[in-house]
Amino acid sequence: MSPSVPIVTTVAELRQSIAAARAKCLKIGLVPTMGALHEGHASLVRAAKAECPFVVVSIFVNPAQFGPNEDFAKYPRTLDDDVSLLADCGADLVFAPRSEDVYRPGHGTWVTPAAVADRWEGFLRPGHFRGVATVVLKLLHMAQPDVAYFGQKDFQQAVMLRRMVDDLDVPVTVRLCPTVRQPDGLALSSRNRYLSPAARRRALALWKSLQRAAELVAGGERNAARLDAEIRKVLATADGAQVDYVAIVDPETFEPVEAVSGPTLAALAVRIDGTRLIDNVVLDPNAT
Ligand code: AMP
Asked: What's the pTM value of the predicted model, to 2 decimals?
């Protein structure tokens, strides 16, 4: 028989289970997700299990982080499959709250994220990071984990959350885990399931363009404008790809750089047939 994992939906039940784990002196890990889980999420759970004997995975499609014209209504909801994947990778508890219990009547308090959230994703998706910051702070208060795990795939989100945890003295350690890709390089994403086979082939241009930038840096290129142009050239080979942004930035501040003089983030957002995909890579001029 395949393993199973308990599911709780209320904060009271969540706290009861966590109190029982704490009573056994178990270190608690939290992996916040929106469900539609894949190997990227599984890698976070495995990283959590490697250092925390009790790992909670939250599954909550957070309405507050979707814009009015975004895909909240059609965002994939696959709870049964999610739970079997989580059982397989050793999660101890699933927390799947109802929206009404997260945003209770009268909810009116929101987190204003730091300036790192103003650009790129934050600029193009007004209110997105405010919604993310608020729900993640709530989840951290609900579960009170020792360690919380996030993916490098959403690099700007992770930097914004690290800043929030530090600025607001939240007693949790934030871990950033590497992006999991399919063998051909496409970053795993819950939104990949919107792609037709042809669109998926075109979506490979995202990773190819970032790899091209990494190759150029390895070959001595340091000029950010030229890297930007090369990335766009590769993206342009994907029919109908609409580039939201290409960012060559300081990985802490997300301010654009003119030259790659230390670890630098190349990040991008591209729409392929209406599906918005993001990806990034750290360009390291000192890598051997
Ligand atoms: P989401 O369910 O899309 O909100 O993502 C939940 C967490 O999984 C976030 O911290 C993401 O950065 C992380 N994540 C999503 N895709 C990947 C991936 N391909 N590799 C590693 N982590 C990921």
From this structure: 0.97
